[in-house]
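Course assignment 3, question 2. Fill in each field.
Student: A.L.
Task: Predict the tertiary structure for the chain below.
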Amino acid sequence: MTRQAPLIAAISGMASLLLFLAAARAGFLALPLFLLIPLPIVIASLGWGTVAGFLSAFMAFVAIAVIADPRIALFYGFDFALPAAYLAHCLGLSRRDDDTGAVEWFPISHVFFRMVLYGAFAVGLSLAFSGFDPELLERALSEQLVNAPQNLGDGNAVSPDETARNLVAFSTALLPFAAPTMWVLMIGFNLWLGARIVKRSGKMERPNLEISDISLPPVALLALGVGIILALVDPPLYFIGAALVATLGMALTILGFNTVHVLLEGTGHKPLVLPILYLSTIFFSFPLLLMFLLGLADFGLKLRERYRAQKNQSNT
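Answer field:
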């Protein structure tokens, strides 16, 4: 640990704390702040070492416990601070070969899989122990939406009560799956952005993260099966099962996008295909299913490895 580490830890911890408090008070309008809560901790860990990362997370945790509430601090620490510090620590792990002197970095695929599993259990346990009740949430939201009459697209009138119930029922049923999915995307984005920032500053020794090389181990299929089984039982195990299904489903979807990137390498179609793919995903969402299926195919058939092997053979 360098002499600067405690100071950097204090600054990054307070920055994460301010982002968390601002997001909590401003609500939906502060969504960009909410998404960046782990970023200062990631930067501290990647740039100034593991101790700085965990120390910044601990400082922010203690400050929230004192300023706000210990329960809120536990939520912040378990869902934001701890995973940011731990996963950034994993990215910084390396070992040197005694014979060749080459540096071997902790595989990014292992970091990715740990992020997926942590997200499933963190969000699933948070829903389970927070007293989250879909029926109570549905009734509360129905009271707010019941006065908003709507019509079906075919012109058949639907009562406000029925419209509100349908909308709220769908939203509450989706929440145990949507929350862990957003968590994975948020933490993954912060790890990537933090690595880019620290790399630009010259303080990160690890080479650039090869996102297109991310893969999942075979045990991921077993974890997905366990998640599906748990998602068929009653809470609180249901929340953990739903989170496992959601995070592993998103992980396979990310593999699908990675496969597209690899298959387009050297073809000259990237500038055209990728913007269309990502824009259609943002506005229509249906490409997510296609990317999930492609990721599942890559998981089972190793499409990227086969394509690169064939490409190398053709070049030799």
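Instructor remarks: The first strand starts at residue 94 and ends at 96. The chain has a mean pLDDT of 84.
Grade: pending
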